[in-house]
Amino acid sequence: MSPGKRRPRGDGGLFKRADGMWIGVVELPIGGDGKRRRKYVSSKNRNEAIRKLKQLRADVLANRIAVTSSATVEQWLERWLNDIHKRKVRPGTFAGDERIIRLHINPHIGRRRLDQLTPAHIRQMHDAIDSSRSAQLAHGLLQKALKDAEREGMVGRNVALLVDKPGHVAEEREPLTAEQAKQLLRSAINTNDPWATRWAAALLLGARQGELLGLQWSRVDLEAGEVDLSMQLQVINPVHGCGERHSDGTWPCGRKRPGACPKHKWDLPRGFKHEQLDGSLFLTPPKTKGRIVPIPAPLWALLDQYQKVCHVSAKNPHDLVWHHDDGKPIDRYTDYDNWQAALKTAGLPPAPLHVARHTTATLLALANVPESVGMAILGHASVQVHRGYAHGDTALSRTHMDRALNELLA
């Protein structure tokens, strides 16, 4: 090479060591820590060393060589989660994905070097996770993270694509029968359960838990007989606001939990619509597009009475339909406990709260409600239903719902 000229980055060089071994070296792109890095090949045979060096150069040019060759899976996942993935998903989804990584991926393969991860390691991770659903979620999340690692030149290939996704058979949730639903509501009303209208709404509207816990009176139109389910109550966890985490994993504030950090904050995507009600409880748009659903006759009568008589003098700064006596919103755990208590009082076995939504779907199906109307009422993501459609079909939806449900409280 002539004086004053430098070999282009990635071109590499070849030299012979004192022990007779031929060494090829290629300079890698500067890593995230700003340090220069190199990768080596070696052989006792000069021609073989040249062949390896050429392949190494090609891999560098094609971004098939890890920028940080010593990075672990855990280190990459932390960077990916906070710098890449967080920009694409909602806060609730991000929190769930962080939990999957923390509980099911890192404990099993987190310490392995990213560029040395093999299909066998991923299969071992599958076997180590005790839940088939968790294994399935972990695999899907790892596959996404490795796809971005491949794009950024962190790995040469996405090894998760070489492993079959774990199988999982979802447990079917048995809905309450019409008689059980009637038994629950009669019990709640007769025992003066303060949340009787809450259970009636769950069974007769088919709304999700967050949609009902975040329902405000301003979105309940009793005159028109409609409910606007365009917002939901959601938990959004805070993050540390005290600075960057130290190399040993601790934070400047000395607190482990973000919520205990004196400077904690909520790191939300730009343009994300939200309203903080109390602590980590926020009103946010639902994951699927909001919808307007008709109020069936039995529920209308209960809500009309509830609005006039119940909780009239109670504090309600957030205009919530259901809330604590001090006006604070009801979190999902308290709501779940209240539901289980109502079932027990009614002499019914414990059941997930989500079965109320399944019950609505079953009642609508038994009444031969057209699938398009039923899906619009329930807001299933598999059907693209916009608000204009919901407004146009409110009368039709009410006719079908009343026919299916008007005897439930008889």
Backbone structural class: mainly alpha
Range of strand content: 5-15%
Distance between the termini: 95 Å
Shape: elongated
User: Any idea of the CATH topology of the largest domain?
Assistant: hpI Integrase, Chain A
Helix content: 40-55%
Give a structural overview.
With 410 residues, this protein is mostly helical. The protein has three domains: 13-61; 73-162, Tyrosine recombinase, N-terminal domain (DNA polymerase, domain 1, Orthogonal Bundle), CATH 1.10.150; 178-216 and 291-405, Orthogonal Bundle (hpI Integrase, Chain A). The protein contains 14 helices and nine strands. It has helices spanning 46-61, 73-83, 91-109, 119-128, 132-151, 178-190, 196-205, 209-213, 297-309, 332-345, 355-366, 371-378, 387-392, 394-405, and strands spanning 13-16, 22-28, 37-43, 220-221, 226-229, 232-235, 275-278, 281-284, 291-294. The strands form three sheets. Strands 1-2-3 form a three-stranded antiparallel beta sheet, covered by helices on one side.
